[in-house]
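Protein: TRAP transporter large permease protein
Species: Thalassospira povalilytica
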Amino acid sequence: MFTFFLILVVLAVLMILRMPIAFAMGISGFLGLAMQLGMKPALSVLERTFFDTSSSFILVSIPLFILMAELLTAGDVTRRAIIACQNWVGHFKGGLAMATVAASVLLAALVGSSTASTAAMAASAFPEMRRHKYHDRLSAAVVSVGGTLAVVVPPSIVLVVYGVLTETSIGKLFIAGILPGLLTAAGLCTVIKLIANRTDYAPKGDPFELRKAARSSVNVLPIALLIVAVIGAIYGGLTSPSEAAALGVMGSLIVVLAQRTLTIKGLGTSISSSIRATVMIVAIIACSAIFSNYLAFTRVTQSILEFVSTTDMSREVILALIVLILLVMGMFMDQLAILSLAMPLAFPTAMALGYDAIWFGIIATKTVEIGLLTPPLGLNAYVASAQTGVPLGTIFRGIVPFLIMEIIVLIGLIMFPEVTLFLPDLMGK
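Structure follows.
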């Protein structure tokens, strides 16, 4: 047990020194294995773990979904989606902010990355809201919270990572994220409407013009069809997530080439960005597996499971403790780091308590999504502040009512699992 606490101290020190989470976990796990088994067996475990993890076929979906997002962003599709949503609902009080949330849902289904979605919204939607005299506190907050939808709405990279780490069906996770994502978006729009009715933060936008709105939607229609095709192929059991991702890349490339919005430079940037993001994610998954192997050899996971089976605490209390720990971790770490650190212990515990793996995945990702908004880290707030120039303190104050709504939605998903499991259950076994 002393060795285990020593390894935790090493991990904490490496993270405090700002070493990337992947390397911090890999080094700590390897040191633990070396102390537990000896250097030669530890090297053998290291070799086998890296090979087994990186050769997993399901990992193919990660670079493909990222490339799909990068192609659509480079092809100016995301900006056009925002403009289309604004033209439809931006003419009444709070309409531009609601349009930003609606565009965030569409963007989430395109990019799969929270920070990328936030950056795109900050560059496109925020200037429009400022031009229409929206208060900076509301505008920057909406941009920040809208970006978090990419954590739950498929094809979320966070859901892919959870599926790989826990060996859970990624296809069912994607389908399970649809209703919680839409429910979250509806909650955010409700908050915007309440703020718009009680303050002068969200005045009316430009008058509605049907022809202008319809014309702006033409360029977005192919993307909407592409999203339906990708998710529908998974839902219908026609393709695996990796195959659907390949179809998404092909469809994205066809769309941006047909619209003549993708340049050679943009194509090169998309490919290089996808490679960088993929290497980071795969490194996190592989190093997390090393740390998980160390936990397995030390029997820490088994000890926790034995404690859970003999404790007097109800499973609801234990689940609440897991959610609370994830929320606290979200104040200091990004979502992939949280999953890689927490799932080796949290997932077996949840399964031992009899919870559904798909449902727990949505609860866990929804919880780390909230962490993207909470100080002191609040990664989305930092991205929005850097893009818009609005002070961090102003953004965090604006986020508070949305944060309350996010927690209400999370509690609702915990209390009513059928909301999450309704669509996956329709898919069958």
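Remarks: The first helix runs from residue 2 to 16.
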